[in-house]
Automatic annotation (TrEMBL):
Record key words, sorted: Metal-binding, Methyltransferase, Transferase, Zinc
UniProt superkingdom: Eukaryota
InterPro entries, per the entry: BHMT-like, HCY_dom, HCY_dom_sf
GO biological process, one term: methionine biosynthetic process
Limits of the Hcy-binding domain: 5-318
Single annotated GO MF: zinc ion binding
UniProt name for this protein: Hcy-binding domain-containing protein
Taxonomic classification: Eukaryota, Sar, Alveolata, Dinophyceae, Suessiales
Amino acid sequence: MVVPTVVLAALPQSRVQILDGGMGVLLPKLGMPKDPILWSARALVEEKYHPIVVQAHRAFIDAGATAIIANNYGVIPGYLRKANLEAEAPRLAALAGQLAREAAGPKGGGVLVIGSLPPLIDSYRVDLVMPEAEAVSWYAMLARAMAPFVDLFVCETMSCPAEAASALKGLKEGDPDGKAWVCFAVDSEGKCRDGTPFNVAVRQLSASSHVSGVGVNCCIPEAVELAVATLDTDPQASAFASSVERVVYANSYPKEHNEGMKFSTETLDDEDVRKDLTAEHYAESAKKWANRSTLPFTFVGGCCGILPHHIKLVTACLKPK
Ligand SMILES: [Zn+2]
């Protein structure tokens, strides 16, 4: 059913739900050694860091998040192959789901657990998107491993529509009844990394019965409005976006990390976050996203570099007691 835009626009502000922030920058702050090969998957590989994963999830829940994303973003062939751990992927993905569930409590208990279907080789790199057949089998494996623990999935940090299409095909294969949000890591102009305008990418998702949300993530906050404004002039994309959740979780990386393919995890210090993006600035953006006059966002959180203190202030602004 397509819900008219005008109805959603009139819903009270409390309609918005709070998502968590980024685990990748938080985990090293809590004691996981920085690992430029495995990144956040290091906390899954070594059992002694499992409590830190739960602690990080709980820090976001305590800050007000009612939806958390499992820590399986690093469970991808692009990272695991370098450590000869590819065969461990199903176990590590399930473990990430299990640790998130442990932090969130049982299904139906008020906190959603979302499984990540991330880029398989590297983030932002539309030139490295895995060929479809291989990608689909990886995504199917991730979905199958995590389905018992999660409420839904997010195809996140998608660089282009083709990458999202592979993730959705994999989901359909691995968890036939599963639903997913699809979030694109738009560049600083609000476009997908292959130049596809956001509205065109959203329009292409409308054919899938598995998509329960659309949005943007791991982009600079300034790019969010540029992306979502394209929906306002596209009746088909706008009608679809109004019938599903609208999701935003931006990052705190400097603008140059968010442009073209200059970004590479090989040169990234994941704590190299913007000093100008205070919790107050981020919460201001969050307020604008949740209060758009058309297609207001329904899930607002943060990605890389957005920490519990940011989410706490976002919660205070969007869910005043
Ligand atoms: Zn991110």
